[in-house]
């Protein structure tokens, strides 16, 4: 193939040249995107079989994790911004790298770079006066600011319970499932 003058290169030619340069270039593990990094080895001696959270802590270590936080009362979006900003500042002062995103008038997402610290951060948040609840890995943990009827229970995926109730209301309808051995209705 005839060599092109570098001044005549277009964007496609520059992209091919960059690919050639990067082909043999070794990228450090820390620079790889999270989904391409090899998982950290799990030390099974640190797992307490009585505490399922210890397993989650070890499996989420080094991975990005998000938790939902609800502010109690009926705050405006600005009040939620101020309250969660104070919580984020407290976590920052304790050397926790947390990013915060407001997703509603009383809800925020806290994104953690290292999910291994999620349960420590959850413990901090549920001890705040205006924290109604924290949702982490499908578990809802009530906070100090929760209603009295919500404090007594630790909910797991309330959507599933609602779906079960709806299915129980319709006894005549056929319940579908994802099993390979689905029974056929006689015609």
From TrEMBL:
Q: List compositional bias (Basic and acidic residues) regions by residue number.
A: 145-187
The record's Gene Ontology cellular component field reads: endoplasmic reticulum
Q: Where is the composition biased (Acidic residues)?
A: 22-31
GO terms, molecular function: low-density lipoprotein particle receptor binding
Question: Which Pfam families does the UniProt entry name for this protein?
Answer: Mesd
- Give the InterPro entries listed for this entry: MESD (IPR019330)
Q: Show the segment(s) annotated as Disordered.
A: 20-45, 140-187
Q: Which family does it belong to?
A: Belongs to the MESD family.
Annotated PANTHER family: LRP CHAPERONE MESD (PTHR17600:SF2), MESODERM DEVELOPMENT CANDIDATE 2 (PTHR17600)
Q: What is this protein called?
A: LRP chaperone MESD
Q: What is the lineage of its organism?
A: Eukaryota, Metazoa, Chordata, Craniata, Vertebrata
- Name the encoding gene, please: Mesd
């Amino acid at each position: 193939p005839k060599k092109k003058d570098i001044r005549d290169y277009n964007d496609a030619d520059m992209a091919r040249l960059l690919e050639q340069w990067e082909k043999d270039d070794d990228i450090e593990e820390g620079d790889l995107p999270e989904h391409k990094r090899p998982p950290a080895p799990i030390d099974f001696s640190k797992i307490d079989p009585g505490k399922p959270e210890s397993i989650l802590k070890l499996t989420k270590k080094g991975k990005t994790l998000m938790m939902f936080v609800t502010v109690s009362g009926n705050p405006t979006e600005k009040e939620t911004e101020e309250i969660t900003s104070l919580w984020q500042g407290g976590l920052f002062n304790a050397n926790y790298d947390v990013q915060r995103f407001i997703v509603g008038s009383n809800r925020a997402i806290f994104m953690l770079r290292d999910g291994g610290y999620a349960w420590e951060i959850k413990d901090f948040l549920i001890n705040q006066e205006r924290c109604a609840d924290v949702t982490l890995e499908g578990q809802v943990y009530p906070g100090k600011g929760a209603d009295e009827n919500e404090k007594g229970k630790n909910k797991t995926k309330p959507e599933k319970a609602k779906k079960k109730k709806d299915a129980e209301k319709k006894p005549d309808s056929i319940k579908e499932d994802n099993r390979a051995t689905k029974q056929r209705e006689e015609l």
